[in-house]
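Table 4 source record.
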Amino acid sequence: MKRKIPRIGDIIEMQTPKGLAYAQYTHKRPLYGSLLRVLPGLYARRPDSFKELVASKERFYIFFPLGAAVSRAIVTLVDNEAVPLWAQEFPLMRKAGGIDRSGKVLNWWLWDGKREWRVDCLSQKQKELSVAEVWNDTLLFERIVEDWSLQDEG
């Protein structure tokens, strides 16, 4: 793909120290920017087709400065696929609320893309929600390579 302006459905290729990783651009929010579905696996070479990979369950969602990363050739747009039905609706996400001096999160906010509400303690199911944060390429690549999971954040 020669295009430099990301569109919903674009597949993003990321060169990590352990191989190629992929994500799909699914949503855009004014305060956060581009939301990516980080797809499972690391690859020695680019797949011939992304249909199967896009149909798989994402590892997590994360906001990412996609336009800047594409224009600086930090990531590459390699294809565009329809966003799966389950991923077309904005995902429920969590944000840390109060944090004590030791760094412990005291409460959380849940966010559905439109409204927020506070919860004192996350349920097990809520610990599986993606975090509403913006990550740069260094952190995103590091988390992919480390096989980071959502439970690591809660």
